[in-house]
């Protein structure tokens, strides 16, 4: 592997891919990694690709490009149909790669799920030497699940690799963080995402310019803006609601919040919706700050520049700083399982 480049399905973050390539080249694979960074940067995609490389049956062959994409192990990851099982997989059904994540209707990743995860990783390898476990939404590990995982990290097994994927490093127990190699994913430059949308997704130059700015450095989000019209409309409405807050009374704001998430909003689905709303509102606050500083050309929502300028006398710098703090507090409340609707109402009161 020395001197070879893997074709990572990742836009930007070359420091991550270069480091992992060096680990592979020198056969210096750690027992536990944390892939950490904002959403929609490709952390889970990179984790699965790293697993595919480690599990490739040609891993130890000199002069072989990895992953080879042709061995039985690679075919599980490639999206090709397996001749025996006639199934398409992204790794979940691979005998040597086990992936768990928070279920949509659950608050946490349970200890039972983690114990089964550990049990499977303790079995002998099916197709090669390595076993790889990936935990998505790792910040959602329950206390009992974290303790069970910690015991495994304290006594790592040879050729077993565990990858935790998270956007909230502070939510993980320090005992787990200290026993893992942390790989920090960073937002990608706008011009790189611009080129990616044109070359890989055939976007027009106008679309690439607009959606690369809207994505705030997150390639997967840029693709979502490009391809999902329903998502674009939901985003447009969330921004519009927030901007109207500044000219509405409290009753109008509460009515707008209810319209955004519904009267009976509760549970994990509502929490996910509110997290997306907070992300959109943070982008607006960032735009206001850029306008205040004179960097109009760097705003995320370029088409809202006129509204920003019209609201300049109302949205002062002190108000911007306060709202940024309140939205950050809202994110913390969500992680603490506060009612999602109350989180938005708290922000509406603070306008």
Structural class per helix/strand content? alpha/beta
Mean pLDDT: 88
Rg calculated over all Cα atoms: 22 Å
State the shape: globular
CATH topology of the largest domain: Rossmann fold
State the share of residues found in helices, binned by percent: 40-55%
**CATH architecture label name of the largest domain:** 3-Layer(aba) Sandwich
- Low-pLDDT runs of 5+ residues are 80-91
Query: CATH homologous superfamily of the largest domain?
Result: P-loop containing nucleotide triphosphate hydrolases
End-to-end span in angstroms? Answer: 56 Å
Largest sheet: 5 strands, parallel
Write the element-wise H/E pattern from the N-terminal end onward: HEHHEHEHEHEHHHHHHHHH
* Total domains: 3
Question: Could you give the order of strands across the largest sheet?
Answer: 2-3-4-1-5
Q: What's the helix count?
A: 15
Number of strands: 5
Strand content: 5-15%
Q: For this structure, what is the CATH class of the largest domain?
A: Alpha Beta
Could you explain how this protein is built, in words?
This protein has 351 residues and is an alpha/beta fold. The chain has 3 domains: 14-184, P-loop containing nucleotide triphosphate hydrolases (Rossmann fold, 3-Layer(aba) Sandwich), CATH 3.40.50.300; 187-227; 229-350. Helices cover 52% and strands 7% of the residues. The protein is built from 15 helices and 5 strands. It has helices spanning 14-25, 43-55, 72-78, 111-121, 143-154, 174-177, 190-201, 205-214, 219-227, 229-245, 250-261, 267-293, 305-310, 317-335, 340-350, and strands at residues 32-36, 97-100, 131-135, 160-166, 181-184. It has a 5-stranded parallel sheet, with helices on both faces. Strand 2, helix 4 and strand 3 (131-135) form a beta-alpha-beta unit. Helix 7 crosses helix 9 (219-227). The longest helix has 27 residues, at 267-293. It is globular and about 65 Å long. The chain starts with 13 loop residues before the first helix and ends with a helix. Residues 80-91 have low confidence and may be disordered.
């Amino acid at each position: 592997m020395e001197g070879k480049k893997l074709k990572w399905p990742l836009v930007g973050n070359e420091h991550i891919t270069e480091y992992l390539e060096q680990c592979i080249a020198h056969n210096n694979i750690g027992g536990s990694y944390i892939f950490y960074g904002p959403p929609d940067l490709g952390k889970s995609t990179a984790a699965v690709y790293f697993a595919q490389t480690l599990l490739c049956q040609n891993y130890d062959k000199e002069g072989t490009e990895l992953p080879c994409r042709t061995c039985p192990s690679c075919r599980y990851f490639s999206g090709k149909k397996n001749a025996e099982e006639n199934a398409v997989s992204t790794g979940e059904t691979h005998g040597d790669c086990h992936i768990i994540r928070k279920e949509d209707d659950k608050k946490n990743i349970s200890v039972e799920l983690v114990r089964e995860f550990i049990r499977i990783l303790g079995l002998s390898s099916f197709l090669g030497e390595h076993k790889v476990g990936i935990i998505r939404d790792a910040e959602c590990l329950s206390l009992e699940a974290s303790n069970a995982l910690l015991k495994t990290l304290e006594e790592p097994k040879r050729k077993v690799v565990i990858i935790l994927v998270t956007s909230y490093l502070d939510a993980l127990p320090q005992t787990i963080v200290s026993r893992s190699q942390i790989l920090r994913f960073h937002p990608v430059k706008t011009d790189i995402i611009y080129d990616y949308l044109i070359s890989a997704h055939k976007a027009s130059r106008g679309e690439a310019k607009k959606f690369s700015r809207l994505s705030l450095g997150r390639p997967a989000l840029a693709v979502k803006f490009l391809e999902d019209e329903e998502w674009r409309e939901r985003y447009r409405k969330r921004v519009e609601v927030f901007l109207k807050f500044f000219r509405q009374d409290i009753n109008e704001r509460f009515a707008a919040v209810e319209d955004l998430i519904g009267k009976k909003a509760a549970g994990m689905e509502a929490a996910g919706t509110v997290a997306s709303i907070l992300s959109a509102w943070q982008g607006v606050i960032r735009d206001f700050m850029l306008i205040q500083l004179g960097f109009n050309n760097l705003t995320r929502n370029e088409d809202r520049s006129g509204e920003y300028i019209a609201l300049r006398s109302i949205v002062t710098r002190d108000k911007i700083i306060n709202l940024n703090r309140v939205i950050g507090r809202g994110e913390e409340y969500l992680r603490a399982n506060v009612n999602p609707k109350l989180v938005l109402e708290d922000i509406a009161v603070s306008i």
